[in-house]
Structure formats: structure tokens, C-alpha cells
Amino acid sequence: MNRKRMMVICTLLLALSIGQSSTWGSRANAAALAPERALQVQDSEASKDDELLDTLGVSSDEQLYDALYNGQTLADIASSHQRDAQAVVDLQVAQLTEQLDQRLANKSITLEQYQAHKAELTQVVAKSVFGL
Predict the structure, then answer these.
(1) DSSP state, 107?
(2) Helix (H) / strand (E) containing 104
(3) Cα-Cα-Cα-Cα dihedral of 132, 115, 13, 98, to 10°?
């Protein structure tokens, strides 16, 4: 496997694992507090997945994973579906910023950590999307 493909896949898996770790905790807490709230959290996560698929122009998670596995970057996937790769960057930055905001509000990170992550977020996401 070439280095570029490995970097893209690792970055995607890291982003998904960060999202899953915060999602699992929030789903468990929501389910314990109110079953209807748990459904809202699940719907919110599903809509974020759908939003990425729509932005990329792909129809399913499997299509996305296959393209990534075959060495395409997110920018390549978006371009092949006549979509703007910068829109993918903007979407991921917005979603990760939301996660950072939640982590700061929950006091799982300090203000200094928040500011450091936020300062480099756009650059890291852009490198990931474009496979740099």
C-alpha cells in the first residue's frame, strides 16, 4: 500500500474514531436520560454521514470506503462527481469544530488545548482531503 493511501485511510479512521468515541458516550447518556433524546442523537449522527456523502456526491458508505481503499482522496472522489473539494473541507471543519466545542463545554479539554486544535484544524483537514 502506498504512503498516500495509508495516510488518507489512517486520517479517515482517526476522524471516525474520534467521532465514535464522543458519539458513543453521548448516545449512552442520552439513552439513560431520555429514550426520545437518544433517537435524536442517532438521527443527528446519521444526518452528518449523509451530509458528507451528499457533499462528495456518493450514494453510500460502501462506495466511499471502496474509493478510499482504491487510493482516491476525498478531493478525487468529489471531483469525479463534479463536486467542490473545498466544500468537503468546510463541512469537515464545521463538524470537527462542533465536536471541539462540545469537548470544551464538557471540560474534557482545556481552553488551551481547544485553541491549539482549532488553530490547526483547517490545515489538517485540508491535508487529509487533498491527500497531502
Answers:
(1) T
(2) helix 85-105
(3) -120
Q: Is the dihedral of CA 122, 108, 95, 68 positive or negative?
A: positive
* DSSP per-residue letters across 19-78: HHHHHHHHHHHHHHH-HHHHHHHHHHHHHHHHHHHHHHT-S-HHHHHHHHHTT--HHHHH
Q: What is the pLDDT of residue 32?
A: 47
C-alpha cell at 72: 482516491
Average pLDDT over residues 86-96: 91
Residues in the chain: 132
Report the predicted TM-score, pTM, of the whole model to 2 decimal places: 0.62
Give the contacts of 5 (CB within 8 A, at least 6 positions apart).
68, 69, 71
Dihedral of alpha carbons 46, 47, 52, 55, sign: positive
pLDDT of 93: 92
Q: What's the pLDDT tens digit per position in 10-52? A: 555 555 545 544 444 444 444 444 545 444 444 445 555 688 8
Extract the C-alpha cell encoding 112.
488551551
